[in-house]
Design a protein that fits this description.
552 residues, 18 strands, 12 helices, disordered C terminus, globular, alpha/beta, ten-stranded mixed β-sheet, four-stranded antiparallel β-sheet, disordered N terminus
Amino acid sequence: MNLFHISVLFCFLGASISLKNSEYEEKQPNIIYILSDDLGHSDVGFTNGHVETPNLNRLAREGVLLTQNYVQQVCSPTRGALMSGRYPFHTGLQHEVIYPGEPWGLPLDEAIIPQVLKEYNYSTHAVGKWHMGMHKWAFTPLYRGFDDFFGYYMGGENYDTHLKDKGLDLRSNFFDENGKFVDELRWDLDGRYSAELYSERTVDLVNKLKSQEDPFFIYLAYQSVHAPHMVPQRYLDQFSSHITDEKEKVFAAMVSSMDEGIGNITKALESTGLADNTIIVFSSDNGGNVNCVGKVTSSNYPYRGGKRALYEGGVRSPSFIWGRNRLAPSKSDAMIHVTDWLPTFWSLASLQGKLNPNNPIKTKPLDGINQWLAISENLPSNRTEFVINIDPKPVACGHRVPHAGLRWKEWKLIIGAGGPPNGWYPAPELTDIEKTCGHHDSYIELYNIIEDPSETRNVSDKFPDIVQMLTEKIKAYNATAVPLGNKPHDPASNPANFNFTWMPWLDMFAEVPDETYTLTKDLWLDGNQLTEDDVLSSMDACFDSDPDSVEF
């Protein structure tokens, strides 16, 4: 039994940890949702991973460890599903991500978490990565229900210069004392590491919000540990004695910097007296990036695949929820999907329906369900199934044929391609790592996730009736899918047009030139700040697919 397991057992026995307090059931909780970027299942200590994360470990130990918390396989779809409570194929976000200069985003007719919570008198604050659209101001955080925002609109920026494709993408947005929208570009923060900035901003928010009577919601979306991999020297020094590989050391130090920031946020909650009435949820937006990245430093072990894959390693997130007076330390095996957090937070804000909203809340039909009782009472989830994704087109460095995936009870069906990545990617020091783009196993894959969570045995030939039933379910879901929202790159977005800053360019021009755009390997490398040396020669195979849409 390792130290983490001993500590969990110690907590279960009731040592020094506050348990549930009925007094807090009648109080609206403060909510902090922390989303890491490209963090693998075994990149944190509380999953017995290969990186030390003492602050995350403590929160997981004192809270509820969520063993089956699922997200989407890439970034923008997860963020859109989280905010809207709806599957990406219902919002047009089911294919790829929003690349720089593409004029699309989470549709404006989708009500999202801050808009719901504001009807229950919550103040709402966003910190870090947005990545749900920025071509018009209407798609940016303050026009979607947040009171203020500090962070970046896109994804993959340089952690120190905060540049993306030669344009600054770091800003503070707020409304001044006259109610006027302010967009403050943060050139002054050149050289400041983003993880530290976002942690400091959240600490400042906590200290500021301690004096307000109304509850608050903070959405903290770290850049860590997305490429480009970089970190201040003081974090590297922590790993100088026991990690010799430089890239592995950088990655571990990046995780450590985020963990330190979360520890500082927790200390701020304690010192202000807000910890007793605050709920913290921690998750990653997708699995660790283990494919077409050269040296693999992330780990999704024991799960298969990683970012971009429908396998567990791409969509099963290292997660917990912490709430000192509402949740007893425990482990929950409830099936939870990222769309569930909107209705769950809605339930908490309304005190399980006891409070009425200030104004009627209109949402489209939600795909998420309220999971609070399953989490707080350690009950089975009311959810028996969820769609992993339905994508009719191949993606760069991902699946090369149309694919779909569905989890139903213990069964998981994949039609088309579960990956790449297809293999198993343990922590680098444990074993050799598969590094090829590779082909998918077969057109139909069926796994019993309870008996075989590592997805080593495709049993589709043994259970044809299950395959047929789940295929019919996927077809029924697919009949409700909306068209892909993706739009081609718009050259008018060039930050050189705006003093080398990224701006909502469609609100800046009366007429915008129309130009076709195809995602090539060179553009993909540039957009992810990678060079040819950073990737594998097999990456070329990821760009030779027929891009035409294919129906299931």
